[in-house]
Design goal:
Elements: E1 3-4, E2 20-21, H1 23-40, E3 45-51, H2 57-68, E4 74-75, H3 77-84, H4 93-110, E5 114-118, H5 125-134, E6 138-145, H6 149-161, H7 169-187, E7 193-198, E8 205-211, E9 214-218, H8 221-230
Parallel strand pairs: 3-5, 3-6, 4-5, 6-7
Antiparallel strand pairs: 1-2, 7-8, 8-9
Helix pairs in contact: 3-4, 6-7
Length: 238
């Protein structure tokens, strides 16, 4: 094993982070991201860190963004809400969303790299992606997958026990399947570059990657098949 990362204080626990990366996987993915740099080195970048609730998006961001992608602007509506109202962030969610959009507009004008976090359970990011691309941005999507909504619930429950914010189970389920559906049908087709990783276990497993200018590469066919099936599932039966 080559690297071991620890989450920052108050981040989600080590079970959801990029704790260990094998040499082979690291080299392969560094080559992947290096190809992004070579092709789009003169373009500003938007990185979309996506996945269901509890997938470890925020934890991974603290490593992937500054250490691998050299990106230091992370616009996170949850963090904004927590800053406004630490004990009741849900009460200021709408206001935090507006602040997030304002910050994105500022970063677009500055033409700097930045990242956002989302479950992809809403469709509104499609228009934002097209807008930033029209403004000369390259858009890279990093999606962290968990094997089931039940695991997502367990991760969220653990986060709550450590002082994190709670999310109702029905919302977790809806976002889990809605996010996967939108990932496959809406977001993968329009992103310049995308990568899907299985974050179910301690070691992240790279599943598939591709992009507008790149051929799709399926690294773990069995997991990719499961993801495609889940993207067609109806969450109401759960």
């Amino acid at each position: 094993m080559l690297l071991k990362y620890s989450p920052k204080p108050n981040c989600f626990n080590a079970a959801a982070n990029w704790a260990v990366i094998t040499i082979t996987e690291l080299i392969a993915q560094l080559c992947f991201f290096w190809s992004i740099f070579i092709i789009f080195s003169l373009m500003p970048n938007l990185y979309i860190i996506a996945g269901c609730n509890g997938a470890g998006k925020t934890t991974a961001s603290y490593t992937v963004l500054p250490e691998l992608l050299n990106c230091y602007e992370f616009v996170n509506a949850d963090n904004i809400a927590a800053g406004i109202s630490p004990f009741n962030p849900e009460s200021v969610a709408l206001g935090a969303g507006r602040i997030m959009l304002q910050r994105i507009e500022e970063l677009l004008k500055q033409k700097v790299d930045f990242a956002i976090e989302t479950t992809l359970s809403i469709r509104s990011y499609v228009s934002m992606i097209k807008k930033v691309q029209q403004n000369g941005y390259n858009v890279t999507l990093l999606y962290f997958w968990l094997k089931s909504p039940q695991m997502a619930m367990q991760r969220v429950a653990l986060r709550v026990s450590e002082g994190g914010h709670n999310i109702p189970k029905d919302v977790i389920i809806r976002r889990y399947y809605g996010g996967l559906k939108n990932l496959i049908q809406l977001y993968i087709p329009i992103c310049d570059k995308w990568l899907v990783a299985n974050n179910t276990n301690v070691e992240p497993i790279f599943v598939a990657r591709g992009g507008l200018r790149f051929e799709t590469s399926i690294i773990k066919a069995d997991i990719w098949s499961t993801i495609l099936k889940q993207s067609d599932d109806n969450e109401s039966k759960y």
